[in-house]
Each structure stands twice: as structure tokens, then as C-alpha cells.
Amino acid sequence: MRTFEDVYGLWLSSKCPVAGAPTLEAALVILGYITFLAIAGAILPGKTYAGTVLADGSRISYKCNGFLLLLVLLASLGGLVLTGVVDPKYIARNRGALFTTDLAIAFALSCILYVQGLSSSSKAASFEPHVTSNPLQDWWCGVQLNPRFLGLDIKFFWYRPSMMGWLLINISLAAQQLDVRGSVSLPMILYQAFTAFYIFDYFWHEEYVTSTWDIIAEHFGFMLVFGDIVWIPFTFSIQGWWLLQHDPPLSPFAAAILVALFLAGYAIFRGCNSQKHEFKRDPTAPIWGRKPELVGGKLLVSGYWGLARKCNYLGDLMLAFSYSLPCGFSSIIPYFYPTYLLILLINRQMRDEARCQAKYKEVWTEYCKRVPYRIVPYVF
Ligand code: NDP
């Protein structure tokens, strides 16, 4: 039986302190990073995509230049590292202050968004305040659907510091391991390669985000503000933090199996999301070489969408496990992310299906009859 210290030792031990107090330096680093992304993202060229049709018939335009922005960010930081201005181990060595300061920034921003949302008198679907009798719930879930600041769609933008932050943390962890161990271990190499691929791919397909549940259905409050800027970078990287203090054995054969798991998960995840995205763009576009089959003329029942109603969640879960399995089975800590994702996606599947049932009514009922499996074909 593991003790509390065993499970959370990584976070609590003096070797890996996370509970540092917020500092002005950490605030300047994080706000500088966010500001850089906002300004560079606005200046850099990029293709514009129209988002989903909102309740009032309007659509938001999103400039999807995240991939270019990521390259510019890495090139800029790379230059600063080469000239000795920035230490690549900075995040790993200042994790406590960066974590708590990031948390404070998320808290402050969600309070500003709450007040800004309440003071809006707009009737546009994006800005109309969504207010209940519970102020805490409104602050947590958000008041406006697509709040803006200086012309920036903050909800769409917020994924950039979030996902890029996850990559920066990972790079810093690899640099720290190289410094301490003298080399980067095979489990760390696999974790780094898989997650870097996922993050680059995310920004390569950034326009796909415009049709996801968070963008089309969630209001922007503390849950998403915190989830993006704190939860994603700091908890999705737990495997990397863990590998700083542990050196699990991994044979080349086991590594090859993990690469196969990652590639299979990626094929399902990306294939499924691409099919839906292409279908929304052009409902006649072929799927797996054939004309798409529809239910009620609205819902796709071809390709992955005919095997289970959420194969994309299955692919994402396979990817999540491929990030953790390089750590072996000696501890449950590296399995935090896949466990969290499993719970989140089962809950998300139920919430999304409730929304689809309300939107598509008998067409959704018919779709569920045609495709009875939720996430795993022939199993669940
Ligand atoms: P989906 O991409 O599955 O989007 C759901 C929406 O798709 C529905 O609301 C509906 O919207 C439309 N839809 C559903 N079924 C069909 C169909 N058969 N044909 C056509 N349209 C359909 O869900 P999410 O936005 O939740 O997830 C997107 C990706 O993000 C997934 O791969 C997921 O794994 C990942 N994700 C990752 C998380 C993480 O923490 N790593 C967290 C959450 C998601 P409409 O009304 O427009 O038709």
C-alpha cells in the first residue's frame, strides 16, 4: 500500500518542490509569454476559418496560424538559449513559483471575465451574458460564450499558451534530465517524442479546434481558463516530472510496441476528427474512398463515425496511455493523465450526447440505433 508521501512525493519533496509562492519574476515570465503569443499571433499571416453557426446565425472567424506561431516561439527561445539569455532548465528549476503564479493569473482572469460578462448588454450569441441564480457556478462555467479582448477571441487563443506551455515544460524537463543524468533516458525520449508530435499536430490542424465541444458549447469561465493554462501544461506533463526522479527499464521491443500503440492511437484520433471536420466542410467529400452515408441527412454514419459514436475519444485515450506506459508499472503517478482523461471523456460523451439529442432529436435516436457503441466498437 502506497503512502501519501509515496504518491505525492514527487510534488512535495524538496528535490521537486511545486508548492513555491508566486513571485513577480514568474508573473513577468508568464505574462510576457502570453503577450508574445498574442502579439505574434496577430501579426503572423494565417488562413482564416469560419467557426460553427451560433444561435443567432452568426459565425466567428478564426485565424489559424498556431503552427507558424509555435515555430516562431521555438526559434525565438532557441536563439535566447544559444546566446545564454535563457536557461533551458528554467521551468524545471522554478516549477513551484511558475505553477502557483500561473494559478493566480487564472484566478484573476476568470474574475475579470466574470465581471466583464455580467456588464455586457449585448444580445449577440457570443457575448450575451448567460447568468444563473448561482454566481459561483457562473464564475466557474463562464458568463460569455466567446469573450473578446482587444479584438482577440480569448477562448480560442487560450489553447496556445496552454498547449505550447506543455511543450516548453517538456523541453525543460529533458534539459534538466540531460544535466543531471548526463543523457536522456529511453522512456523520456519516447514521452518527449509522442507528446511533441501530438502538440505539433494539434497546431498543424488548428482549424479542427473550431468545431470542438469547448469552442462551440462551453462558456469561458474559471473551468476552461484554469484547465487550459494550468491543468494542461502542469498535469499532462506529470510523466516527464516523474521520469526526472525515476529511471525505469525499457527494452527496445517494449519501446517498439509503444510506438505501435502511439501510431494506432494517432491514426484513429486524427482520422476520426478529420472525417468529422471534412464532413462539416463538405458533406459530399468521400470517406474511406466512398460517398459518405448519413442519418437524417445530418449525421455521419460512415468511417469511424459508423464504428462507434466517439472513436476520437478512443484514439485520444490510446495516445494518453502511450505517454504513460514508458514509465512502467512501479507507480500510479504517471497514469494520472490517462485516468483523468478516461473520466473526463466518459463524462464528456454523456454531456455531448445530451446536447446532440436535444439538437437532432429523432435523428440522433436513429443514429444511436445504427451505431450502438459509444467509444469502443463492439465493447462500450
Ligand atoms: P467531438 O469532436 O466528437 O465533437 C462533438 C460534436 O460533433 C457534437 O456536439 C456534434 O456537433 C458533432 N457530431 C457528433 N456526432 C456526429 C456525427 N455522427 N456526424 C456529424 N457530426 C457529429 O467532441 P469533442 O469536441 O469533445 O472532442 C474533440 C477532440 O478533442 C477529441 O478527439 C477528444 O478526444 C479531444 N479532447 C481532448 C481532451 C484532453 O484533455 N486531452 C479534452 C476534451 C477533448 P454539431 O452540433 O456541430 O453537429
UniProtKB/TrEMBL annotation:
Q: Which UniProt keywords apply?
A: Lipid biosynthesis, Lipid metabolism, Membrane, NADP, Oxidoreductase, Steroid biosynthesis, Steroid metabolism, Sterol biosynthesis, Sterol metabolism, Transmembrane, Transmembrane helix
Query: Would you indicate the residue range of the signal peptide?
Result: none
Q: What Gene Ontology molecular-function terms does this entry list?
A: Delta14-sterol reductase activity
Whether Lipid biosynthesis counts among this entry's keywords is: yes
Q: Which GO terms describe its cellular component?
A: endoplasmic reticulum membrane
InterPro entries, per the entry: ERG24_DHCR-like (IPR001171)
Return the EC number.
1.3.1.70
- Transmembrane region(s): 26-46, 67-85, 97-115, 157-178, 184-204, 216-244, 250-269, 317-337
Q: In which pathway does it act?
A: Steroid biosynthesis
Give membrane topology per the record: Multi-pass membrane protein
Q: What is its main location?
A: membrane
* Pfam families the UniProt entry points to: ERG4_ERG24
Q: Does the keyword section mention Lipid biosynthesis?
A: yes
Q: Name the family the entry cites.
A: Belongs to the ERG4/ERG24 family.
> Which PANTHER family does this entry report, sorted A to Z?
DELTA(14)-STEROL REDUCTASE, DELTA(14)-STEROL REDUCTASE TM7SF2
Q: What name does the UniProt record give this protein? A: Delta(14)-sterol reductase
Q: Which organism is it from?
A: Klebsormidium nitens (Green alga)
Q: What is the lineage of its organism?
A: Eukaryota, Viridiplantae, Streptophyta, Klebsormidiophyceae, Klebsormidiales
